Amino acid sequence: MAYYDMHVRFKPSASDLRELGFASACTGGEQVQECVIHNENELSQAPAKGKISILACENPELLRKGVKRFDLFFVSSFYPDTALMREVAREEKAFEIPVNGLLRSGGYARANLLARMRFFVRLCIKYKADFVLTSRASDRLEMKSVDELIAIAGMLGLEPQQAKHSLSDVAGRIISEAASRH
User: Roughly what angle, to the nearest 10 degrees, separates helices 82-90 and 107-126?
Assistant: First the structure.
């Protein structure tokens, strides 16, 4: 089974990826385009062809308007909007669930974030919305191995098979769909 880290912020070496258990990683800027929006006017930006497009916003209404055009959706607050989850599931898109926020926080902030992420992931499963675990690593030291991501997914309430599905099947589908758009 091939595993993918869908969003890293640097170019990892092939040997590092093999050592961590990944077939490949998608690099921000090269293979991934993240579009952070704050209002509806910014939503008019077209996703880049041949790249994985991530729409990041805190407003679920704006995210719903972008569901047909973007591949992944990221809500840093993990606001549980069920209408958005249903729309993402219907359009066969996915949510990005980065683990770097958990790893960079501590104490109460980490516990609070973990609780919000667990609830968000549980609702994704309930409404059959796909999601992809990512590292969003800025350097080699922040990257996590496949086994570490699966363990972190366990803290989010996922079974190992669900985490593997996220890292392989869902990620592979999104990569191939983005590559086919030219």
Answer: 50
Q: Characterize the bridge pairing of strands 32-36 and 52-56.
A: parallel
User: What is the DSSP-derived secondary structure letter of residue 58?
Assistant: S
Distance from C-alpha of 86 to C-alpha of 84, rounded to nearest angstrom:
5
Q: Please list the residues that pair with 130 across neighbouring strands.
A: 94
In 3D space, the residue among 125, 152, 155, 159 whose CA is nearest the CA of residue 136 turns out to be 152
Nearest CA-CA partner of 137 in 4, 9, 31: 9
- Taking alpha carbons only, the member of 53, 47, 45 closest to residue 26 is 53
* The total number of residues written for the chain in this structure: 182
Q: Say what the pTM is.
A: 0.93
Tokens 């990005």 belong to residue: 96
> Which residues touch 115 (CB under 8 Å, ≥6 apart)?
none
pLDDT digit string (tens) for 120-170? 999 999 999 999 999 999 999 999 999 999 999 999 999 999 999 999 999
